[in-house]
Amino acid sequence: VGEGGEITYKKIQSSQIMGSIQLGIQHAIGGLASKPERDLLMQDFMTVETTNFPHEGSNHTPAHHYSEFKFKTYAPIAFRYFRDLFGIQPDDFLMSMCSAPLRELSNPGASGSIFYLTNDDEFIIKTVQHKEGEFLQKLLPGYYLNLDQNPRTLLPKFFGLYCYQCNSKNVRLVAMNNILPSSVKLHQKYDLKGSTYKRKANKSERQKSSPTYKDLDFMDHHPEGIFLEADTYTALTKTMQRDCRVLESFKIMDYSLLVGIHNLDEAQREKTESRKRTDSGQSDDETEGEPKRSGLNRTRSEQVKEDFGTQVKRTQSINRQRLVAHSTAMESIQAESEPIDEEEDVPPGGIPARNARGERLLLFLGIIDILQSYRLRKKLEHTWKSMIHDGDTVSVHRPSFYAQRFLDFMAKTVFKKIPSSLKHSPSKRK
Ligand code: ATP
Ligand code: CA
Ligand code: CA
Fold this sequence. Notes:
The chain is α+β, with helices and mostly antiparallel strands. The chain folds into two domains: about 5-175, Phosphatidylinositol Phosphate Kinase II Beta; about 190-425, Phosphatidylinositol Phosphate Kinase Iibeta, Chain: A, domain 2, CATH 3.30.810. Helix content is about 35%, strand content about 20%. The protein contains 13 helices and 16 strands. The strands form four sheets. A seven-stranded antiparallel β-sheet has the order 3-4-8-9-7-6-5. A five-stranded mixed β-sheet has the order 11-10-13-15-14. A hairpin with a 2-residue loop joins strand 8 and strand 9. Helix 1 packs antiparallel against helix 3 and helix 7 runs antiparallel to helix 12 (about 400-415). The protein is globular, with a radius of gyration of 22 Å. The termini are far apart. The model is unreliable at about 285-320 (pLDDT under 50). The structure holds adenosine-5'-triphosphate and calcium ion (CA) (2 copies).
């Protein structure tokens, strides 16, 4: 955050980055229309297209009021092919990306990346480091191979890789699927790795209105884990095994499983509560469970971010199909249990589950942050410490160690097969 509360990245105002990349993406997608669809060639993974965006505009770029910039589009034909595999029409992609202002998410990660969300909730644009961008470029042929064989996966769906250049600064950006719907209240969010070393949300994270918790917090909140129907459990663990095998083959580690939990029973209670309040003439604000922090110790950006969070109620139907094929958690794991769509204001595709108290949950999840390869990994002190802490000292085996520990944690600690006693608990409707 820069002076005056304006959010900056590499000293460039975030609003300027957002506006400029929308111009860049619009131009890139528009330019593809003249290139006929064809099979992918190896060189399609390596091409980079660069366009200048002068103030006054040019033959093929519009005039604009941002600083002059260059926009690079990596592997445009390859990413068009990927978007096609995911069922995204060029017009739809253009609409999502460029027709409304992007929203900035508060990023709980330590890397300093900025995350933008498209207004329709479909896509996330993340700033990535030079090395990560390079790694994605190298990964593309293997990524393609995997996707072609297995479009149902919890791995991130990449839709584009770009670089915005301004004043000799490079901002590299990856467009991918959004795992967590912002239209539904997520009662809890977790970023899980299967490690316990320093895996606890810090104080400033916990103070947010919708914190992202970590492994130790999860074990604290859900000591018995989260329960899934046997078929769902098997589908989920199988998918994660397949995905981790791919990640291991690329020597990728440090990825997380992002899990958002919507508690249907709690949402029901909240509804009843707020109805009671309205009936007794009390205003919503006075009785809100969470004490409001004073405006003084919240930065403007924090406030903006929170306003864009769960509190924003958008009018568009949230029950519509997701734009991106196979993008919901349920579609990704190919489980076929009956959807819980009795709730009207819940987006489709959440995985039905229960907590230890038998409450009905919907899970939204996916694997994130996969652009850190073992060879490129930053040698931060805490990473070395955590290695020793985890007893993982044989470095050649680290990606496989990481994958195994990740899978073990998910299949044994986080997710459990539903015990029959919970199956017929009184809180289950119908
Ligand atoms: P670090 O390297 O320090 O872990 P990072 O900047 O690489 O951080 P990520 O780990 O990719 O960031 O993501 C940080 C947080 O952003 C996640 O915990 C999650 O809350 C949110 N996030 C990331 N990717 C997605 C996504 N595809 N959909 C929804 N939320 C996401
Ligand atoms: Ca991460
Ligand atoms: Ca990262």
